[in-house]
What does this fold into?
Amino acid sequence: MVKNNPIKFSIKNLNAWFGSLHVLKAINLEIYANEILSIIGPANSGKSTFLRTLNRLNELYPGFKMTGSVFYGGEDIQKIEAEVLRKRVGTVFALPLPLPLSIADNVAYGAKIHGIKDKKKLEEITEESLKKAFLWEEVKDRLNESAFKLSGGQQQRLCIARTLAVKPEVILFDEPCSGLDPISTAKVEETMFVLKREYTIVLVTNNVKQAARVGDKTAFFLSGELIEFDITEKIFTAPSDQRTDGYIRGEFG
Amino acid sequence: MTRNPYRTEKIAFFFLFLATLLIVVPVGLIVVIIIQKGLPAINWQFISDMPRNGMRSGGIFPAIAGTVYLVLGAVIFALPIGVLAAIYLSEYARENLLTRIIKLAIVNLAGVPSVVYGLFGLALFVVFFKFGASILSGSLTLGIMILPIIITASREAMESVPQTFREVSLSLGASKWQTIRHIVLPNAIPGIITGTILGIGRAAGETAPILFTVAAFYLPRLPKSIFDQVMALPYHLYVISTQVPNVEEKIRYGTALVLLAMVLITNLAAIVIRYKFRKKKKW
Amino acid sequence: MRKFKEFFLEKLIFICGLASILFVLLIFFFLLKEGLSVFKTVSPLKFIMGRNWYPISEPPQLGIFPLILGSFIVTIGAVVISVPVGVACAVYIAEIAPPKIKEILKAGIELLAAIPSVVLGFIGMVTLVPWVKHIFGLPTGLTALSGSIMLAFMAMPTIVSIAEDALYAIPKSYKEGALALGATHWQSIWRVLLPAASSGILAAVMLGIGRVIGETMAVMMITGNAAVIPHTLLVPVRTLTATIAAEMGEAVVGSQHYFALFAIGIVLFAISFAINVTADLFLHKDK
It folds into this structure.
């Protein structure tokens, strides 16, 4: 038996719909602190929707409803204010989505929102976050340039830095490398690896190899169901479900 | 006889072209005529002096100042309401009956004849609220009239801000209002400014809404408070064109030119701002 | 504290969102409040069908039929001129003009929309009116025809821009399909594009009519303002809008005359309401 870290998220019988479309079916899952959980599965298997329920981002879409419950640190997330929850549970989206601000202002945005006004303090947070995202050296001389001038990989690391600047406890990565080249991907993966010492990470990816590389645990989703959830090594060497085996061997995708 | 489709096309296109000329050429002519005949009247005295001799000589300063006051008042009233209404429609409203009714109300507000605005202003502000014929009554009437212009332009500007920016901001723990304040509004400002300037142009040129709510026939001094009447440029042009005999043609054209210039310069400013920001747009 | 501020702001936003409805209702209410009083002395039928408008005679005769006819005849004239010319111009801009020319033409149309109506009225007085007088050998050029021509001109920006939008919104594949079948460009416009855009063009025409009926200053300055029943386009007429604008200044608040002018306002409001709602239906028909 492997020693488990404390439980961060506990998902109990989660069902979700967009309109009449049943996108998540009776999900039960536990997410442990300071680990990377990879969620794999083909397109439209509900993995991104699952990720977005963790910090209540799905609520932004009309027609979304859910049943069951998600506990964050033992507390029902529906009872936590959305803003507080999202501050603790940050998201890095599939595409690099810089805000139309300068590089520095992108990173400082969240901190400013959460009430930090002192300029010195903001600069410190910006530098620290950019360093953690391994972007500082590349941008330190051009902090006031528009974030749109960065390359795609740099933009994605900027988005990671922006999420870190809010000082979250959990970071949700929603296919963060889907638009990136292999070198940028490697850098982002390296970043995640370092980050897991301080943060809990949930990574949605449709790149099976990426899940194998970075995940401590792996969950396999198919058509809105959680098919299998185990230690990454186990999933990739001796999956207990045939469908998991088929998916990771590339039989369908 | 067989018809040659290519000849038909040539003839048809010729008539389409002719129709276009029929609209555009007179526009050009009107502007040229007013400039040509109005320019000789324009000098510093004409712009900065009081009218004299029953408006047959002197300047048009109080009319210019009156129009500026009225337009300022209208914008002070309409801009906050218009922008907040646009925020409601773009950020809060759902697809439901209420939203449909609001949109229909805006369309109707934009279509109400200007003289009906005049009647409304008279009944509500002048008589019911007892503001009298005053800058306040006139500005409020003009403000309601330009409200749909400001709402529509601001809403379009806000809706063109990509949804993903809002999502990013919310995902960082920002509240809805913080997201609007820090992400949506700053990126919608060029559109809001453009809409406001178009509203200013419209308010500056309208006569019917101010006829019974503020405009003075002849009042060669500046107002002391918002409860005073003022002269206004469009009404002044109407007065010296139809109500006062023996006004020199030069003065009429000169007044028309000043009014036209004010309106066209505001419109031009709107176009320039729109163009500049579109080029600077970052996404 | 922040929560409280945001709660307050969001309520304010909601209230401002409703402001447009409030203002439409206020306009309607105050027109009714002041206008309905006239029907204490004149029956609605007599008001609308009455042939004599002598508001300051004793007792006043308040029949607006000549004014309705005045608005009607000027509007018909304007529509006959502006619809074909305006739609043709929209087609030219949307389909034929090269990009650069297109920008210039659109700027020209926008320019026309920006010119204040009192300026157009003034220009009409000093140019159009003498021409009409001269060409038709009339005692005065201040006629319904002058009004129609000027109003047709003023309705152009509305008609052209909305019709052009309607044409622009037609999927490119429609036109390409027609061209692929060997139609000439003109045939594809005439047989495919115009029918496909018909509801948008109809909306353009209706909003143009709304603009014409509501126009006040230019009409007042060049139609001669005679409140008599017109039999041709070549006589002076007086429209509903011009009547209000010209007479409200002299009407005593609370008099029959004052109430009657508000009642005319009700008629105008009702017409513009009907036109705008219908045009809106046409514009959203396909969406």
Remarks:
- Chain A has a mean pLDDT of 91.
- DSSP finds ten helices and ten strands in chain A.
- Chains A and C do not touch (no CB pair under 8 Å).
